[in-house]
Amino acid sequence: MRLDTSQQMRTDMRMRMAPRMIQSMEILQLPLMALQERIDQEMIENPLLVDQDGDPDDAEPVASTEDYAEQPGEAPEPTESADDSEADFGEFVDDEWRDSYDTNHRVSRSAIDDEADRKHDAIQNVITRPRSMQDELAEQLAFLDLEPTVEALAEAIIHSLDENGYFTGSLAEIVDQVGEPANLELAEQALAVVQKLDPPGIGARNLRECLLLQLTPQTPLREVLHKLISNHLDDLQQNRLPKIERETGIPIETIKESLDRLRRLNPRPGARFDSEPAGYVLPDLVVELDDQGEYVVKLVDDYTPRLSISRYYQQLLKNKNAEPETREYIQKKIQSARWLIESIEQRRNTLLKVARAVIDHQKDFLDKGPEWIEPLKMQQIADRVHVHVTTVSRAVDDKWVQTPRGVFPLKRFFGGGTTTSDGESVAWDTIKQKLLEIIGKEDKHNPLSDEEIVDALSQGGVPVARRTVTKYRKALRIPSSRKRKEY
After folding, report:
1. What topology is assigned to 417-484 in CATH?
2. In sequence order, which ranges of 46-102 are alpha helices (DSSP H)?
3. Local structure of 401: helix, strand or coil
């Protein structure tokens, strides 16, 4: 059955757009320093890319892409500067610069590769950013064909893991962070996806689950290990092997052999990644007050090269004596350069739009302090700037913003909340901060009960239910009043 012509054209367009979309998403997710390293690497691999500031005589400015508005579930339309095929692009180049260049040069593809090698020699000592656990997991996630909401939830979970690779947060908070149509059922699916990533045991909610996730059908004594981990982990830690033997009927020699296998599992799967904190944070954005008292968001890109395409190599396309292979190679490199330049410009536009919407929503945070943070879901920002929620997630990932109140990760401004008994919406961070303040000031010999904390919060303008106080106290790992009491 022959496809309709328009349907075939759409299919061809999607196939051509796939590599561009992947690159665009990768560029959007990069923080500033990683973006600079990516540009350095691209300049090594593509000799047609030049820095407009470093070599203005050989730079041909590339028009910025217009602000693009991505509808949920759809890819942004290609800009006019990116042609649909290499053949069309080659014809465009010939027409565009027909009268601009001399055509007496002769060059071979090997000469172009030699120039790339010289660039490599010049930049080979660039220090690269260590790959984090989140980098590794996000890369694996990108290879999976997931429903967009599940993917957004999985990304949020990945960025909530602690340094050991455990998920110690709440799926309800992850759902609120992503927003509709996310729900707990989809969050459970997303967590299951994360727990199947490498290294084994990642995304576990506790030690028992971490160890169980590392058991495979090929694990020796798998059934015995599963039973011991599930029901007798405390006894194993206390070396109460005879007790286990009595309760399970498993011979003590088998228990010892299983214990030896158990010791080969990794209780801290995330610890293998470089967890050394950076010596300093380079913010991607700066928020300043203007003369009218309004917050202005600016992108930090002073140190990012302004890329362009080499005039010299554009000129070589007009060389009628050039080998067809060389012309084809240059056309491909020009197209690759344009894709990169457009991806960087899209990153700039998207990051600015998202950051401006976030700052506009969190003015009270900047005016009055962190306790005034408002509940904010990524879906709210996605709706406001007309992009998919996964685009917002990538835009804020690992990005930092310098504000009059300090430097914060952009994700700091997102978070769910709860409705107070008065019907007002209060951010979780506000409740947690006030809870810590109240408990920090309590009489250690007569600590406050959860009911008394409810009263104190209500007097402070945050009327919440007792179960809410208990939930957040446990989330902050604060013991009950009985256990907090000092004698």
Report:
1. Arc Repressor Mutant, subunit A (1.10.10)
2. 86-96
3. strand
